[in-house]
Amino acid sequence: MGAKHRSLIRGRRRFAVVEAVLVVGLISAGWVSAPVGAQSGASVLDGVFTEAQATRGEATFRRVCSACHDTNEFSGGRFRLTWVGQSAADLYDTIATLMPEGDPGSLTPAQYAGVVAYLLQVNGYPAGESALPTSLSALRTMEIVEAP
Ligand code: HEC
Predict the structure, then answer these.
(1) Which of 61, 98, 106 for mutating ligand 1's site (highest number of atoms within 8 Å of CB)?
(2) With 0-12 CB in 10 A as exposed, 13-18 as middle and 19+ as buried, what is 33?
(3) Average pLDDT for residues 52-80, to the nearest whole number?
(4) Per-residue pLDDT tens digits for 24-63
(5) Are 87 and 143 in contact (CB under 8 A)?
(6) Would you tell me which of 26, 34, 88, 143 could form a disulfide with 139, CB atoms 3.0–4.6 Å apart?
(7) pLDDT surpassing 80 at residue 136
(8) Quick one: pLDDT at residue 118?
(9) How far is the CA of 11 from the centre of ligand 1 (A)?
(10) How far is residue 132 from each of residues 20, 114, 135, 140, measured CA to CA in Å?
């Protein structure tokens, strides 16, 4: 293979990488919608809660959770280490079945979903058009990926 041919191949490969990065960038920027095949690869970057829901969740967090927790415990590096790679269902289920300590399950499903929405917002995930659901099977389709 001549040197000219090799550099052509290398050039093409580099172009493919640039192209892939561009497509991912456009999808995450929301300028183009993800292909249908990516539906099952949905993530918490897709706008899975509403602004209003997160605001209600913040009020619940302050009223109920902040007696024992600071928001810092659930944001930044700590959040990433514990939750990235898991699904929104894992986060919801952990909180809904274990918290508040001493009275687990005492909030309504909508209140738990609100708290989860608030924690997602605190971590920089974007709000969207529809509220975070309370159904575990729906939540299971939403992967917690690195925050933007
Ligand atoms: C009465 C005190 C108290 C209240 C109120 C409370 N928690 Fe906790 N929470 C704890 C304790 C204690 C732990 C266990 C700490 C540990 O072992 O890591 C914990 C652990 C957690 C964990 C980590 C669970 C895990 O295993 O990863 C999360 C998430 C959490 N709490 C969220 C919440 C949320 C959200 C609320 C409000 C709905 C809440 N907590 C209310 C005391 C409380």
Answers:
(1) 98
(2) exposed
(3) 97
(4) 555 555 555 444 433 457 999 999 999 999 999 999 999 9
(5) yes
(6) 88
(7) yes
(8) 98
(9) 52
(10) 29, 8, 9, 11
